Amino acid sequence: MDEMTPGLRRSGRIVVTPKAAQMIEGDATRTEDEKFLEARPSADFLQTDPWRALRILGEFVEGFDAMAKVGRAVTVFGSARTKRDDPVYELARGIGYRLAKAGYAVITGGGPGAMEAANRGCREGGGLSVGCNIELPHEQGLNSYVDLGVEFRYFFARKVMFVKYADGFVILPGGFGTMDELFEALTLIQTGKVRHFPVVLVGRAYWSGLLDWIRDTLVAKGAVDAKDMDLLLLTDDPDEAVALIQTHSVIGSSKDGVTSVRGAPET
Questions:
Q1: Is 124 part of a structural domain of the chain?
Q2: Fewest C-beta in 10 Å: which of 12, 37, 174, 245?
Q3: How far apart are alpha carbons 7 and 19 in whole angstroms?
Q4: 38: in domain
Q5: What is the pLDDT of residue 192?
Q6: CATH number of 125's domain
């Protein structure tokens, strides 16, 4: 753009010609102060992206304030649809209990199902039970076992809390949301955005099909490096799952029923 363009106006990182101002802003003769001091402005601004940006910033600030002193913590992912009579519910509850006894807070999505179970077990174990809840079209309130709850409108702000304040991840059987959290965590680790720490999949029967597909299709086609399979650990044992978090075990070892995905036995 020619720096000598008549009427050129700069606003922060944005440079605007009179033509662009007229097309975008309407009345280009009105100053920002004049617009700001308007006695009865339209409420439409509440639906604009700049206003949403302030809401987003507010969610990060509130989340950071709430979570900053949580201490050592593990994020537990799992399905909101897990019923209380499902064995996975008791598995999640047991893991939450063991994590609390090991000195960890437990962070979940704060909803029902496996999330409730992990929060419940954590509270029963005397730990700090944390829930990062999300606003959904079908109302999902915080479960009754959350000690520290943070409500979010935006998934991405909530995801930051899951990752930023976790010393490890425990992934229980779940659906699209659980898969989303799993693969986002793996991507952050793989690309060096977060330090390498345990990602523990609990439930061989549930996860083996997915892992076989990754190995036989993604790795075989070169879309994923074989060594990236070592970012995952697979176990059925809640005690071993917690032990992996405690010791930050070297991924690639295989003992006592805990198998690195890369070294999983052939079936």
A1: yes
A2: 12
A3: 9
A4: no
A5: 87
A6: 3.40.50.450
* 149 φ/ψ sector (left φ>0, alpha ψ -120 to 50, else beta): beta
Yes or no: say if 109 and 126 are a contact pair by the CB < 8 Å rule.
no
Residue 32 reports pLDDT greater than 60: no
Average pLDDT for 147-151: 92
In the chain, how long is the greatest CA-to-CA distance? 75
How far, in Å, CA of 55 to CA of 51, rounded? 7
Residue 207 forms part of a structural domain = yes
Strand order in the sheet with 258-260: 148-152, 129-134, 105-108, 73-77, 169-171, 199-202, 233-235, 258-260, 254-255
Average pLDDT on 38-47 reads 65
What is residue 262's predicted lDDT score, i.e. its pLDDT? 34
- Check: CB of residue 252 under 8 Å from CB of residue 230: yes
| Band (31; pLDDT cuts 50, 70, 90) | low
Query: How many residues comprise the chain?
Result: 267
Does any domain span residue 54? no
